[in-house]
Amino acid sequence: MEECIFCKIIHGEIPARIVYESADALAFDDVNPMAPVHVVVVPKTHVTTLMDVKDGGMMEGLMMAVREVAKTKGVAAQGFRTVINCNEDGGQVIFHLHIHVLGGRKLSDDMG
Predict the structure, then answer these.
(1) What pLDDT, on a 0 to 100 scale, did the predictor assign at position 1?
(2) Would you say residue 70 has pLDDT above 60?
(3) E strand or H helix at 9, and its extent?
(4) DSSP 33-99
(5) Residue 8: in which H helix or E strand, if any?
(6) Which of the residues 38, 96, 98, 100 is marked catalytic?
(7) Which comes out higher in pLDDT, residue 10 or 55?
(8) How far is residue 18 CA from its own chain's centroid?
(9) CB of 29 within 8 A of CB of 39?
């Protein structure tokens, strides 16, 4: 996707603070963090939403990336939250599947 900001980050066209990278996933610090730790994990292949995932192996790879991010950022032991927003009513703003990893403090249960 030519205009997808996450695809541009994956291809190095837009700089990002990379936290983790594998053959299939990239994780980087969110530019507008909502917690002390806020990392975005994306598949390197463009998939628009969670509903468009055709390969369970992709999700397995993303979950492994989430685990590595939590360890790297030092939130694995005390806890963290993962969020996948899907479509507009679910709060998805960038239409490239992504997982938010949030932690570094006790998180509220307020779902807004």
Answers:
(1) 57
(2) yes
(3) helix 5-10
(4) -SSSEEEEEEESS---SGGG---HHHHHHHHHHHHHHHHHTT-TTT-EEEE---TGGGT--SSS--E
(5) helix 5-10
(6) 98
(7) 10
(8) 12
(9) yes
Structure tokens at 55: 């390969």
Q: What is the pLDDT of residue 112?
A: 45
β-sheet bridge partners, residue 29:
39
The Cα 60–Cα 71 span in angstroms is 17
Contact 25, 42 (CB under 8 A): yes
Q: In whole angstroms, give the CA distance from residue 30 to residue 84.
A: 14
Contact call for residues 30 and 85 (beta carbons, < 8 A)? no
Q: What is the pLDDT of residue 103?
A: 97
The arithmetic mean of pLDDT across residues 10-19, rounded, is: 97
Q: Which CATH superfamily is domain 5-103 in?
A: HIT-like (3.30.428.10)
Active site includes 98?
yes
